[in-house]
Prior knowledge:
Layout: E1 2-5, E2 11-15, H1 23-35, H2 41-56, H3 66-73, H4 81-100, H5 125-141, H6 148-162, H7 166-170, E3 177-178, E4 183-186, E5 195-198, H8 201-214, H9 235-248, H10 265-280, H11 285-296, H12 305-314, H13 316-330
Antiparallel strand pairs: 1-2, 3-4, 4-5
Helix pairs in contact: 2-4, 5-6, 6-8, 6-10, 10-11, 10-12, 12-13
Amino acid sequence: MDIRTGIGGRTKMKRPKYHSFFAEEINAFLDYRESTGMDISADARYQKLLDNFFTENDVKGTGITREIADLWRRKRDRESEHHHYMRVNHTKRMLEYLFAKGFPVATIRDVKPPKSNFVPHIYTDDEIKRYFLVVDSYGETHPGNMKNRVQLSVLFRVLYCCGCRITETLMLRVKDVDLHEGFFRLKVTKGNKERIVVMSSSLHTLMQRYADMTFHMLTENDFIFTNRYGQALRRDWVEDLHERLLAMANISALSENGYRKRLHDWRHTFAVHAFKQMVDSGMDMYVSLPILSAYLGHSSIAATENYVRLATVLYPYLQERFNTVLDKLFGKEVDNGN
């Protein structure tokens, strides 16, 4: 394993040693992703598989031919559908990086995610209340990064109140926040689709207070949620913190269907509540769906299907009201969105 050193001599995550012709490029690619605050633990593992593949097939600087690309994308014997999906789609980014660096690389198509019976958890009103009571007191009760006394309340409310993904939230910089108009721009997003997220009046007020206390110490290019060294908080750190917060709030880590209550479930909770609110206010489904889909950063309305279906399961009167419309829009199969 390779131990790399970060700013101030701090140790970054251990990663495998790479030995192929492209070892240097793989490390440079991982360095870049890690510098943006990404958790590269999964990336590092899958890049090792690619590195071994390059070595075994004697792939050199002449590039990745169509034959080699197809061989890498092909599903292995005894390989699960999930592993096939993760292996190809994680390393596809690396191949695109090599292409951008000027190496001849044949294009490789994504592998579709395997069907899943996973059901996300929608946090109840009681869980939300207990969770945020703990969030708001965490910085006072746990010494360490002094900034946590103010930033955690804002960070977790952005996740819940705006339905943002954790990575795109952690990549927010000072220049992305419009304190006057009450919105921020998400620039590091899934699918590289920049979008604007409007804050509620209460979140806008909280963000203004947070900015008054912290932004004067930052430049416009600095991240707004940082560790004690001024670096963007890491996704894995926030996810670990989420599990501690659940325990501190005396909330079970498992939902009724046996799945863990994830940080990402705040996004699902937001989407379900937002859809219900729009419908309850009298907004037509054909109007509300495109709005919700665009707000969440989905590439199509169909990608919002899981949230809509989940809302109708939790609130049966929505199912009764829109059963015909749902079948017409999406058919009868449920697909898990994100």
